[in-house]
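Pasting as-is:
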Amino acid sequence: MPLEVINWWRIVLPPVAGGFIGYFTNDLAINMLFRPYKTRYIFGKRVPFTPGLIPRNKERLATRVSDTIMNSLLTPEELQKLAQKLLAKERVESGILWLADLALEKVKEDKEQKTAKILSDILSDLFGDSFPKLLKALARKGDLLESQIDQIFDRILLDLQLTELQARQLSDWLLKVVFAPNLLRERLIDFLTDRNISVIDEGFREKASGTYWVVANLFGVKNSLQRLRNFCLDEKDTANTRIKEILLSLEVRNQLKELFLSLSLQNLPLSTVKQLRETTNNVVRTYLQEKGSDVLQEFSSIVEWEKISILIINRLQSSTVVSSSLGLISEELALILERYLEKDLEHIVAEIIPILSIDEVIIEKVKATSPENLEEATQSIVRNELQAIVNLGGVLGVLIGLLQTLLFLFT
């Protein structure tokens, strides 16, 4: 072979071989990070470099990844900042409003009245068990509802006064029920017994003086009262008519109306009003202490709470006040939550981090990821960079080959 040919190959071969070796060795090294995916065996012995570097050290890699993320990226300070952004007042308010609207819609779509049943149980327990127990506990205090009863007395009873219409209606009711002519006639008959007539006659005779003494001792009233009783017994209709005429002539209706119109606690002496207030206070407190809890329990047992709950739920569903109040309620709750988070967010985050076990989640996720997926994920992120490394290997191989060629030429 001619010398020129030999020298030509000795000049060209080193750069070509160096570039080829540099390129493919880098590519092989990168592939050996992930491949082979499984361990290979020959004659029962593991083949070196199987599986790839990352699959073989996946547990240690998972721990390192978790430590890096938790110590550098998801630190408590960063999590606190993230929580502050997520729990901003506007976001919290929107979330609460969304939940409230969703709950209201669910209540409207509730065909089985589950919400009404829950509310019924709550009301039944409240009035049948909780309130009576609370009242029993409060009843042990000597000043039970003292100030409240005094306020009711001063604001309602003390200023209570009948209107003219109420006074007239009450007067009419008394004339029909209490002062009915037939009822008065029967009461008069019951009163004019022989004994009562004798007592009246004897008293009139003893205590009369002057002209009345002469009339009392000569004529007396016994005979007149007996005749009045017999008249009421024998002439019922006539007696009722006469009694009615007497009531009209005496203007009993107007007298009763004027009495009721003038009836007011403010017209009583101050000492009497004070004593009446104390008496009212004592009567109400004694009743509540002795019978209050029993009355509440009896009241709870006879009330149909489920029907009341259905009425309440139906009213709330159609109430515009409830719908318009949701925004205000969510805003107030968001403000309360914001004040609470400003004070205790750092402490909450410190407690949540161990509960969430983010580091363990990261480790388990990395362990559960197959080598194929790890390689695919890595390639998708740094494909260009890995290819640049391979190309760099080829370039370095060529440069080293050129250096050998230059040394050959100079020597």
